[in-house]
Design goal:
By secondary structure, this protein is α+β, with helices and mostly antiparallel strands. The protein contains ten helices and seven strands. It has a seven-stranded antiparallel sheet, covered by helices on one side. The protein is elongated, with a radius of gyration of 25 Å. It starts with a helix and ends with a helix.
Length: 322
Amino acid sequence: MKRKVHISTIIYAILVPVLFGLILRLVFGLEAFADFLAVMSVTFLFFLPFGIGVLTILISHIENVRSKSYQALMPWLPILILFILTIILDIEGWGCWIMLLPLCLFLSSLGGLTAGYFRLKRHDRKNRLQICLVFILPFLMSPLEQMIKVLPTAYTAYTEIDINAPAGRIWENVVRVKEIPEKEDKGYLTSFLSFPRPIKAELNYAGVGGSRQAIFSKGLVFHEAVLEYANEKHMHFTIKAYPYEIPSTTMDKHIVIGGDYFDVLDGTYDLERLNDSTCRLHLYSHFQLKTHFNFYASWWARWIMKDIQNNILQVIKKRSES
């Protein structure tokens, strides 16, 4: 009989936190409450996983709670189930969740350990107040957070590669990147996150004032305007993506390029001659973030930008050395 109680309690300790997380995501995503509640906020990103961790342990059987590993790892189950559920229901995208998952798992464990500490210390008392606080606090904190103005912050993604080929041949592959077959694509991170992959880049005029289109899969196009140009040495260009051109199925609205939170500003190619047979091609870009959690989002944004750039550099190297 005792075993049955334990199993039913475990199921209960999973389903209630999942329901809490789903309700919180749906309410915070409502346009009607956009001025007060936001998914792209520290409040949501903290209280969703932390609250799931707290709830999981508060309603778990006390014998299970005595285990530290249970406190730390049990909250992962509701997080992963919520992860799968929101993808199936098309509430969140795969890429967005993958980027948030490490943070969510850590915070859910923190919530579980916190609840476990107080649960064991006061296990003979009711947990109604703590459960009520888990539900209420996100709705009290988020409006306060939305009052804090967020300023856009610029970051740099820098990459380089050495190429054993004449500068002229390398530069031809820089200004005009011919179509890239899928088998040549080396963007492992962007591929895993289901981001668009580069297809080709076309420059209408090799000089200041020239315009370039960098075409990616799934309808993503970067419109580039050349600001500085030195043949076989340097090309600096602005980058602009228009969200209305990007199909809604291409990227999650929270990470769409040119949207409210993430944008790419410019890019630069510099070709450096190392010796008679080798050149070093530098590619760096500036991108902008506008979130309350740039400290975390900037890591992922830089990794993604560097993955895209390294992919393009690998293609240029292979074609120039062929």
